[in-house]
Amino acid sequence: MNALGFAARSAAEPLERFAFERRSPRSDDVVIDILYCGVCHTDVHMVRNHFGFTNYPIVPGHEIIGRVREVGTGVFRFKAGDMVGVGCMVDSCQRCKPCLKGWEQDCVEGPTFGYASSDRQDGTPTYGGYSDSIVVRDKFVLSLPGRLDPAGAAPLLCAGITTWSPLHRWNVGKGSKVAVIGLGGLGHMALKLAKALGAEVTLFTRSAGKEEDAFRLGADHVVLSSDAEQMKAVGGRFD
Fold it and tell me: What is the pLDDT of residue 208?
């Protein structure tokens, strides 16, 4: 299946237009026309081979929002036209204990990632969301609620779940006192989510100029971490 994206051919080269072949869809696959893809710093790390295991050429992107083009004969949760999302994983063994618990990130055989990885069945390279389409096993496709703005929803596929997971794990809610360190890709999501759960939320930042954005996104308080007196004043305050 013909696809067009943006790829880096080495750690020293910029992204450039890249025509490539997506694998043929299987019975349990969903073919998605990509509409939006978030930009995560992990994409930079992978493109620049900061972890030491990047395979080139690489098409990054793992915060994907798109519209279903077609589905395989064994797919019943989705249909053409549905708005969906795809995160960093596109497959796993589905047999080991972690997978059967829904913890595919801990797959004993290792999960298949959306890019810089290899398809479990045919060994073809996976290419990410900086492209016009993608083919993904249906178990790794998420329905997008109709009330969500598709463009704004893209960061939920990485920054959103990364910050939601600890908030959910520690039962954050009304009366909780949550501190968020930094107003970056994850930090802005953490503020919004913690506030929506009813917590009292404080942002720690080194930049006084971020206060306006912090309050707009849900912070109740802002602490300048470069100010020793402000840091001392909030010692032991947070859950």
Answer: 86
- Please list the residues that pair with 131 across neighbouring strands: 5
Cut 0.85: pTM above it: yes
2-154: which CATH architecture? Alpha-Beta Complex (3.90)
Residue-wise pLDDT for 57-87, tens only, equals 999 999 999 999 999 999 999 999 999 999 9
Q: Which among 213, 211, 172 has a CA at the least distance from the CA of 193?
A: 172
User: Which pLDDT band holds residue 146 (cuts at 50, 70, 90)?
Assistant: confident
| Residues forming CATH 3.40.50.720 domain(s) in the chain | 159-233
H or E element, residue 85: strand 83-86
As annotated, the residues of the chain forming the CATH 3.90.180.10 domain(s) are: 2-154
CATH of domain 159-233: 3.40.50.720
Decide: helix, strand or coil at residue 83: strand
162-170 average pLDDT score: 95
What end-to-end distance do the CA atoms of the chain give, in Å? 50
Instruction: Categorize the per-residue pLDDT at 220 as very low, low, confident or very high, splitting at 50, 70 and 90.
Output: very high
Antiparallel, parallel or unpaired: β 200-205 and 142-143? unpaired
Q: How far apart (Å, rounded) are the C-alpha atoms in residues 85 and 48?
A: 26
Q: Which residues pair with 45 in a beta bridge?
A: none
